[in-house]
Write a structure and sequence with these properties.
single chain, mainly alpha
Amino acid sequence: MRREDEALARAASDALLAEAELTPKPGLPDTREADFGALRWSAGSLVPGLAAMAAAARRTSEGPSRQLRAELGSIGRSTERSMARANAGTALHHGALWPLGLLVAAAALEPAKAPDELPAVARRIVTFTDGAAPRRPTPGSAVASRYGAAGARGEARAGFPHVRKALAALRSARDAGAREPRARLDALLTVMSTLQDTGLLHTAGPHGLRLVQNGARDVLDAGGTATPAGRSALDAFDTRLRAAGLRPRGSAHLLAATLFVDGLWSRGVAPRARTATN
């Protein structure tokens, strides 16, 4: 394993833990209830697979291709199984591997790209289909078809628009003087406010999805989580989601992907990218 590949994988694992530690997250596990020993174990179980994805992308000589897409898919499925075994049959980070794996592969494939350009590189990877992917429909693909939602694959094929929105929200909040946890919460709410989360559609239908989207907008319209009005709206939103049993996990996965991309600037994982944009 090359040092660069392991560094990317650990940056992605750290982003998962940073998302999990963020509190209070409306409707989502955080420090108030999560088993962080299990979450750390689960995130760590992804590192070998993520590093293998980075290595597969780094050694390719032709850029995004059908072969690379198939190899990433095979590694991803194997990593999902390893994660489930590491967590006694429960894939605690199920769904997060798709965006993180693609972005890790994008960073390894084109290391001279600025981190903000990685979603576009990931989009080029998923223009190719994975011929070995299981043909049976998943709950997410079924509701995506039923309601016309983009789903996880649509998000990737569009170049992760919600990651780009969250990056902009994160930086805007920082520029306005918000502390880091508040900036990250605003980024999460930005994703929640428009994401067509197929997990929510599957468990709660369009009404549940609208409740999440509208509640997130209410917090942002109140000034965001750095303001007293915004924090009050956030508490009320969190209470509503927990009472209704709504878990917007798709937004959490995309926040982790956002924190991964954002963190590449400060970790020294993408030094050439920083030089190229100076």
